Amino acid sequence: MSLFVIVSCGGFFRKKILNSPLNDPRKMLLVRIDPGYLGEFKEKTEGKYAISYQEADSYYSVMSKEDVEKFGFPSPGITVVKQYFPFKYYSGNYQDLIKERFTDLEDLKKGYKDNILNIHYLLGVASRYPKRARVEVIGKTARGREIPALLLTNTNLSDEEKISVLFNCAHHANEVISIEHCYDIIYSVLSKPKRYEEILNKMKIWVVPIVNPDGARHFWHVSNLMGRKNGHPGIGPVNEKLNPGVDINRNYPFFWGKTGGGYSSSNPSNYFYRGPSAGSEPETKAMMDLADRERFAASISYHAYANCLLIPYSIDSLNNPEPDMAGELGRKIAASVASLNPEKEFEAKKIFILSMGWIRIIYTSLMGHSRIFWKPRI
Fold first, then answer.
1. For position 340, what pLDDT does the model report?
2. With left for phi above 0 and alpha for psi between -120 and 50, is residue 236 left, alpha or beta?
3. pLDDT in tens, 21-35
4. CA-CA-CA-CA dihedral for 250, 256, 262, 268, to nearest 10
5. Which one-letter DSSP state was computed for residue 312?
6. Between the CA of residue 32 and those of 43, 46, 215, 330, what are the distances in Å?
């Protein structure tokens, strides 16, 4: 239990990465600049906005909607993009990061990560810290991409009798900030070797930064409307190019399809489509296989949008065990976390009822009532 008291949840990233709704068209807009008008753009905006993405015949910058109107855009050579472009256009420094070699842990702070950057950093960390980290592939996606994980432990000691815990992120790959929380764990553990030496001697800390690599590929390189679901080919109407696949956090078998509410659906077109059958998706199976093998003592699954910390159970017919370690520890963590969003600081018993999420399958089916689990939705 001491692991979770020590680990910083959302520490340095809040300071390093701008807290702005990058791809929310209600507040921020993507502006396209013709090369011949770049000087005019910089002069009008007084250098306030950097170039977020560059093509051979265009520059792009993410601006607040208020400033777009203030500076009189659109104007000749400077247009407002109406389509939902891939997230790489919005992230700010993707093209720079993709060219850089991994040098040290400080690189983990530089920006948001797609699949390419994720495996780049995981391999870099494992190469730099071979006595405390190694990369393992826990499975493959519906489209054949590998799902990489980083195992933090003393690799010179036998894994037998070590206690396993798990941090996972990006079940929904459009919740891009969740990935940074996984990297916060990696940074925190490896940057403080003395503090974590005894823990790494006795524990295996598994980190899966992107559970949904296919969704990440769609979100970063096709359209920022995509990414929540896994993009499984053949699932969903053919004409719905921007919403294919399964919500893998609704696909876990525990109480699959047995609860009501608007956050789970049997309709393939739905944002919360739970899949054709329980546990049908390869990403779901990969996580279940890992849990079955490791028998995790505790797990945190990071998500976004709600500023909530969810603990099992949210189903009326199920009672929490006594002693309720997940509930007790979850409340302690919630009490110690401050919200920087004045619109999202609240407490409620039932945010929504989910029947098939990772939170239930790991807590009940694989771990039993003696284990700890919760899921922050930052």
1. 67
2. left
3. 677 778 899 999 999
4. 60
5. S
6. 15, 17, 26, 45
Q: What does the domain layout of the chain look like in residue ranges?
A: 28-82, 102-362
The token pair at 147 is 């799902």
- Higher local confidence (pLDDT), 95 or 327: 95
List CB contacts of 343: < 8 A, sequence separation 6 or more. none
pLDDT per residue as tens digits for the range 273-291: 999 999 999 999 999 999 9
- pTM of the prediction? 0.87
> CA 262, 267, 272, 276: dihedral to nearest 10 degrees?
130
What gap in Å lies between CA 248 and CA 122, rounded to an integer? 23
Check if the beta carbon of residue 33 is closer than 8 Å to that of residue 60: yes
* 328 CB-near residues (< 8 Å, 6+ apart): none
Q: Kind and range of the H or E element at 64?
A: strand 58-64
Residue 149 belongs to what H/E stretch? strand 146-152
On whether the CB atoms of residues 318 and 350 are closer than 8 A, the answer is: no
In the predicted structure, residue 11 carries a pLDDT above the cut 80: no
Record the tokens describing residue 34, joined without a space: 């013709």
Asked whether residue 12 carries a pLDDT value surpassing 50, the answer given is no
- Helices 115-128 and 213-221, interaxial angle, to 10°? 120
The answer to whether 103 and 95 are in contact (CB under 8 A) is no
What would the two tokens of residue 302 be?
């990071």
On whether the 102-362 domain is CATH 3.40.630.10, my answer is yes
Alpha-helical runs (H) found in 129-190: 177-190
Write the CB contacts of 136 (distance below 8 Å, at least 6 apart in sequence).
148, 149, 150, 151
Question: What pLDDT, in 10s, does the model give residues 67-108?
Answer: 999 999 999 999 999 888 999 999 999 999 999 999 999 999
The single-letter code of the amino acid at 240 is E
Partner residues linked to 149 by β-bridges: 136
Contact predicate 235/246, CB 8 Å: yes
